[in-house]
Design goal:
This is Protein-export membrane protein SecG. Its main location: membrane. It is found in: Cell membrane. With 123 residues, this protein is mainly alpha-helical. It has a domain at 2-29 and 51-78. Helices cover 52% and strands 7% of the residues. It is built from four helices and two strands. It has a two-stranded antiparallel ribbon with strand order 1-2. Strand 1 and strand 2 form a beta hairpin.
Length: 123
């Protein structure tokens, strides 16, 4: 299931970048006014109005794919096994603490690093 999540996430990111590029390539609403006065839009790659239709349709298709991959990622993430307890309990593992040996040779009941003041250490 982990490889499926990676594949869908990769497609999701690529589609998001493609949508950003297509939106930046499209003309605004005011760009059509310049074409009416002969700005040379008819000599473009897609023709006078072909670029708007092509880019709009492609953006719509990519938006639908983006929506589908978003739902797929949410479904895959919800199918992961649930943990019982907090995330900190699962990630932090306690290690055994050796008792601190005092100068007199006695073992202390205070773990190492528990108290930093001299009055915290039992005598």
């Amino acid at each position: 299931m982990n490889w499926l999540f990676s594949v869908v996430l990769t497609v999701h990111i690529l589609v998001a970048l493609a949508i950003i590029g297509l939106v930046l390539m499209q003309h605004g609403k005011g760009a059509d006014m310049g074409a009416a006065f002969g700005s040379g839009a008819s000599g473009s790659l897609f023709g006078a109005s072909g670029s708007a239709n092509f880019l709009s349709r492609t953006t719509g298709i990519l938006a639908a794919v983006f929506f589908a991959t978003s739902l797929s990622l949410a479904y895959i993430a919800s199918e992961k096994p649930k943990t019982s307890g907090s995330l900190m309990q699962d990630s932090v593992q306690s290690q055994p603490v050796s008792p601190a040996v005092q100068a007199g040779g006695e073992a202390s009941n205070v773990p190492a690093g528990a108290g930093s003041k001299a009055q915290d250490v039992p005598k």
